[in-house]
Amino acid sequence: MKQKIAQRSVQAVIVLIGVVLLTFVMLRIVPGNPIETMMGEHADAATVARMTAEMGLDQPLHRQFFRYLFSVVRGDFGTSYSLGKPVSLLIQSAFGNTLKLALFAALFAWTLGITCGLICAVSKNRLPDRLFMGFSLLGISLPVFMAAMFLQYIFAFKLHWLPISGTDSWKCFILPAIALGWNSAGQVAQMTRTALLETLAEDYIETARAKGLGNAGVLLSHALRNAMLPVLTMMTIQFSSLLSGAVITETVFSINGIGRLMVQAISGRDIPLLQGTSLLATSVVILGSLLADCLYSVLDPRIREES
Amino acid sequence: MPGGKQKQIEQAADLRVQSQIGEEERFRDLMRRMARENKTAVFSFFLIILMTLAAILAPNLTPYDENSMDLMHRLSPPSAEHLLGTDEGGRDELTRLLYGARVSLLIGVVPTLLSLILGSALGVLAGYRGGITDVIIMRAADVTLAFPSMLLAMVIMYSLGGGLVNVFLTLTLVNWANVARVVRSQTLKLKNSEFVEAARIIGVSEGKIMRRHILSNCLPTLLVLFTLNVPESILTESSLSFLGLGIQPPNASWGLMINTGRQYLYNAPWLCFVPGAAIMLVVLAFNFLGNGLLDVLDPRQKKQ
Q1: Of A80, A115, A163, B136, most Cβ neighbours within 10 A?
Q2: Predicted interface score ipTM higher than 0.85
Q3: pTM of the model as a whole
Q4: Residues of A in Cβ contact (< 8 Å) with B149
């Protein structure tokens, strides 16, 4: 098992380097000198040349890449063009908000999703099942920005129950978290239902029942525990879509997080900032799926015993 | 695409390949079975047809012009004259919605087709050739899939700039990797099957084996991927346009309509919620249809 984890870690590092390369190339093929774009039309040629040399943009592309790669390894993401601060500092101050948002959203999605999935599996093909499954499809089809604006319109603007935007108190995170978690909740619900139904058809469930274990006992201690495995792995992978959604949610609710920083980077044509933020988000996703793999092999005795 | 769905498609595809050597249900029979068993999927199919027709026939369906301003009637709520109200320029919202459907549906279909072509070509190549080709293609797929799809789309859109063609390109580059993975795993299974072996022995060329014998067997799976990737593309584009990174005015997709309507959320909420509902409806319809197809094509479902 240790060998497998090591193998996956090496793979993750390779993918990570690929990610750095891809963002690097994508952002260098933008036409025009970024310094000129940044300084506006009236910049004098001498200053542009000096700045270009200072940032190493006049060097050959491969040298620029390795220079960037090494500075990234040291934790230095360069200086933001538009905000004039080190990118690592900007990311540090924004990361907390995004993390808070994502955690609240995940909490909401997983509680709601697992509960709904459980209810559906128990009442297979009856009214509650159909109702909740329709609901979960609605959740999957609802774009994050629609959920966000709808919640903002109803609960903040019309009813005044919760703040419209900001990050001042935990109340500010309720609506964004629901908007962001809505999608994942639908997915978790469907996954839980499918996994539970599959598990409930297994022989050992029959055995447990034959031994006289009640419905609740079978469901909670035998079925749910085993059905949670695929759901758990999916949940770690879901962090990826939560980060995608965070861009939108943070924009709608004016939360100063990584997603909003990315949007700012794009509108300010700020390459170091965009590179830094996307690199961070992608690393989180890669780490998440690595974690999911490890978790899976630790939790599933069949895989654990194999090696 | 949601992780669970991707897995289900892969498993269903693998099982199909394994069960294929025996009797193969003809495609027409599969469709008949779906029509019989899954009314929601059928309903969704007709809904999609209806929306496509409405988009094509937009000029015939509405008396208003898409872009003609009427500043006397800005932001007027839904009425008999303007069924869905008017926007910030006094343009009829229903008309904008119908024309927007053209752009949004096109964005759903074109990049999905392109990514299917690119993804299946690379997938079959990786699976059939193996070796270094496989390593390079699949590592590229890994890198693509490592990005949260929205972030990758944002980075590519940034370097290409906005506009319809660039949206097509971006969504193709975001979606190909999923397709490549599924097609590769099917190719690996099919490569060693007897009929491919037989074809190889009688001297059929490599390219022809890949096209005729392997890809044609992947078609049902590709159909499911198509149906489930269309709503994904529509959602990604509308998110991009919502941030102002996608389609550029005067073209209007539903996402862009929501982006402009957002400034008037509090005094003219219909400007956001009407195109939003349209997006949901299309996405829901494609999801229902895709799930229906997946159920029919999944051999496990047949046994039950």
Answers
A1: A80
A2: no
A3: 0.84
A4: 241, 244
